Every structure is written in C-alpha cells, then in structure tokens.
Amino acid sequence: MTDHPLDANELRELTDAALDGQLTAEQTARLEHLVLNHPEAARFYAAAAHQHAALQWAFADPVLLTPKPVPTPPKRWWVRRRAAGGAGLAAAVLVGLWWALTPARPQAVATLSETKACKWESGSLPTEAGAALVPGRLRLAEGLARLTFASGAEVTVEGPADIELVSPLRMVLHRGQLTAKVPPPAIGFVVDTPGSRVTDLGTEFGVTVRDGATADVQVFAGQVNVLHHPTGHTEEMRTGALRRFTPDEIKPFDPNRDVLPANPPAGRPAAGTRVVHLSTAQGRGRDAFVMPIETPPDRRSDTLLLVKNTVPKHSDWYRKAYLTLDLNGVDPRAVREAELAVTFAPTGMGFASQIGDATFTVYGLTDQTRDDWDEQKVRWNTAPANTPGGKDVDPLKTVRLGSFVIPQGEQTGVRTVGGPALTEFLRADTNKLVTFILVRDTPGSGASDLVHGFASRRHPTLTPPTLRLTLTDRR
Amino acid sequence: MTPSPPPDGFPAGRVEEFLGLIARHQRRLHLFVASLVPAAADAEDVLQETNLVLWREFRTFEPGSNFSAWACTVALNQVLAWRKKRQRDRLVFSDEFLSAVSQELIAAEEQLEERAAVLAGCVDRMPEHHREVLRLRYTESRSVEAIAARVQRTTEAVYRMLSRIRQALSDCASRTLAERGTT
Questions:
Q1: Interface ipTM
Q2: Per-residue pLDDT tens for B44-54?
Q3: Which residues in chain B are contacts of A65 at CB distance < 8 A?
Q4: CATH of domain A273-472
Q5: Chain A partners of B93 at a C-beta cutoff of 8 Å?
Q6: How far apart are the first and last CA of chain A?
C-alpha cells in the first residue's frame, strides 16, 4: 500500500499542525492516510505526539506562572517534574488550546456553593453564593467559602486565603488554608502550592500555606501523593499523616504546637551581621521613568514612577522605571542578603479592568559605565540598556533579578524582590552605584489599560524604592 | 471521616491496591491519553473519565496482571467515546487513526518513555529564546497567535520555530540515548 515514497517534510508539517490544533479537514484526511499506510509515518507521529504530551507534562504548572520567592532555580525546576509520581497533567495548556479550538467560551470549573461570613478582596471572579466560577483568582479576606468543582471535588477555603481555579481537576493555593473532600470521579484532583503539588487519590485532606513558601499537608482519610518540587521527591501520605513541605525539606510537624506565624517576624539580624536601608533619596541615588514619546503634560507625575506595557500598536505609551541607589558606606562584598522594596499607589491613568494580574520584573544594570544617567535628561532612547519592546531590556547589559505580581484591583501596597540573583548583583558592584530597571511584563488590552505607579524619591508620604541589606559586620 | 465509599461491588480489601496502582501509573496514562488527544483540555476530560471507569471496573482486573495494559485499553475506549461525542462540533480523527496511533504508542512504550526521560536535559541545553517559546506555549498555555504577539514575530514564524524546536528536541533525545548506549 506504500504507493508513494513518504515525504518527510509533509508529514512533519501535518504533525505540527495536529499538535497545535490547526489541521484543516483536508490535512486531517491526508495525515490519516499517511499514518495508516506507512508504518514509519505512524512511528513518527506517535513519537511526536508523545513528545508533545511529555512537554505538556513537564512545563505545565500554574504555580510557576506567578513568580514566588521559592528558591527553586528557574532553569531546573521542571526537570524534577520528570520524576513525578501520580499527578494531573498540563491543565495550564488548557486555556490556550481551548481558545484555539473553540469560540471564546470560558467553562465553569466550579460553583461557589456556600459562603459563611465571607469578606472578599480583589479577585477576578464573582463572589456571591451559587455563582459559577470560570478559571481565575479569588482572594478571601475572612470567612469560609465552599467550592464544588465540576469534577465533584469539594473544597472549603478558610480566609485569609488566595486561590486560583484552573480546571475541574486542578487549583492553586497561593496562600491560606483549605480542606478538600474528593469523591472517586475526581481522583487525580490537584492542589498546587508554591513549592509542592498535592495529588488526591480519593480522600479528605487539609493544606495550609502560610508564608508563601511552605505547605503543611494533613490527610484526614485516604491517600494523597505530594510532589515536593525542591527535592523532586514524591511523598505518599495516608490517613493521619502530617507533613510540612518547606523550600528545603520534608518533615513531620505537630499541628497543635508547631504552627508557623501568619506573618513571619522581621527577625533580629543574625549574630555578626547588621542591616542597613538605602533609598533612591539618599546620596547620589535617583529615580525616573522613561517613555518613547515626550511625556504629555497630563501624563506626567512628579511623585510616581510610571510603568506600563501594552500592545505594540500603542507602543508610544510604554513606560519603564529606572532606579539608582548609592552604596556609599557599604562594602558590596559584605552583602549577605538583600531585598529591594517598591511601594505602589494609584495613578488615575487607565482602567484596571483592561489588565489582569500584572507581573513586573526587576533587572540590574551590569554595564556600570551607565550608572551615571541623568535624572532630568534621561529619555527612552538614551536610557541605559533600554530596547524598544515594552518590557525588554538589553540582555547583554542587564541581569534579571526577580519578579513580583500586583493582582488586578490591588491599589496600594509594597512589593519586594530578593534572593541570590540580587545579592550576586550587588556583590559584583565596583563603583558604589547600582541601577535597577523596573518593567511590566504583562501587556494590557491596549484599550486604555492601567498605568502602574511606584512611589519615587519625591513622593511626599510614601517610601521611595529602598534596598534592605544584611551585611557581614566586619567592625 | 471516612474515605469516599467504593462503588457497589468494589472488591473488598482492594482499595489500597487500586490507589497504589493508579498513583504509579497516572503519569504514563496521562501521556498516553495526551498523545491521542493533543488538546490538553480534552485530554484532561478523557483522563478523568478513564479514572472513573478504572475505579468502577476494578473488580474485573485480575491482581498481578498488567495494569498498564488494562488501563491503556480503558483509556483508548474513552478516547473513542469522546471522539464520538465531539465529531459533530469539531474536526476529529477517525477511530482507525486513533487505534493505529495507540497501537504504536503501546508497541514503542519503553522507547518513548526513555525519550521522555531525557527530554528535560535537552530542553535545558536549548537557547534561551527557544525555552521562552516553549514556556509560553506549554506553561502559559498561549496560543500560537498570542506567542507571536508577545515575541513580536509573525504567526507563521512562530509555527516554524515550534516545529524547529520539536525537531531539535527529538534529535537531541535520539543523540542522548545513542551516546548513552555506546558508553
């Protein structure tokens, strides 16, 4: 039946179209013909489809969509997934493919079946009892909310909590506490936490995420498997089991005594260290924002650093913020830990409804010859390491230090970036000036989407961008 | 508090056995289903049905026999049932095609698993912009159009890039396994 020799390029094109959900009726027929008549075509297609499935498995993890201060090196995190025991697959791909294949039709994944004394914070979903919930974010300030997933899983969330619904079989607990009751049809129900993935195998269990990095899991009845991302280990937990999954290890805990503080105390500096705070308002410190066009008078701000990314069509309205801090008096090599904090406040420009949760990234300027940029004269074209894109900087002159998220609707607050990348960046400084570039990764809709603002050194009341440094005390 | 009650006729004393098997085979089963149903949302639906049928029909499974083979048979039937339900509103593959691919997946299972296991290392060795495209496609579940807008390339260019990435990964997996074989 192998009437014609097989055209490898044709087969590859058809296979790619199938995997990306782009086959036309004719192409479908052609692909079927090839696979059914050429054994090597069947082998090729099966291998490509299996690789596609394995990539879905390896890459899908909504927790990692939202950068978190979990010390899992981003380059390697997903390798650990390879060793995963039972777990759900690739729900994160759901949305994209769904849209590719069917008209816009967000599917309800759960119902808000009961609420008790609930106070809701910003979120992207309706919050009245009985509401059908599509994939999205919910933040509960206080009270109890019961969700019934389309799969049958029943989850009770206790405020304060921050959760994300992904699919009928999958949700994310970013912060807070929940209990889940999972009937057989929902076996495989997954609760993702910042450092671990809890896969249910027909059971009742509780999960608590308090500090944004550690998850406490208790099994009331049945079995769950917990994949701990930092170690790649899958812990099989049965009735009565209690385990704490920290960024470093898995250990038992006593729920009655061994409770994590809801807000970790600032803590006294460790022996032999001291803490200093530096801001853009000190010494040769400075801050400014740049945009591609001359800032119109009604779009200026003396007190806020404006940051925006949007669709390329409206590229005139991109904005990026530049911060320089004076390290005078600090020995960069003595830096042990560091955190950069920025305070955000409403700008009155654009609509919050035109952008969802927004992710921001902070870059460090490694080209130290450009640390001397002028706060008054700096423009889009002359700003150090700037490149035309709304969120892009020159990768050869910068280093990515970290990201944070400002959820839709949250108007004021503080965000921080820290970790080894920032510490390394500071320790490499030789001219006592360090420059940071703050960009918004998330583009808005393009229809008057929100401009975010961060307190500058000229803001009358809010704290300017501040570096908190823990230094080895050599005195 | 008690575990969810087993269905009527569920073999007494075999709940633990079932839970153990389903946990061990969940990933493999997922890859099998997702290979036949490339759209993740659909694959998830099918897998959920499959798990339910496995639970319901576990009494017919003979202890000690090949769970993976049994589960794949059940999964294929669920894929075909799903196809039948969907064929009115969208383009779907024929039963013959799905059966042929499924046979191939089962015949080559060991080899495919080996390839999947070295995939991680291969992705690590890719240039950063390729990893970014994979991340947008598979983690952020962006459509090809959305990725194109994001990386400021044409849709066509992103299709080509995805194709090249898949090819490079496949070549890398073959190479890695060949090297491993010779050393």
A1: 0.91
A2: 888 888 888 88
A3: 139-140
A4: 2.60.120.260
A5: 28, 32
A6: 85
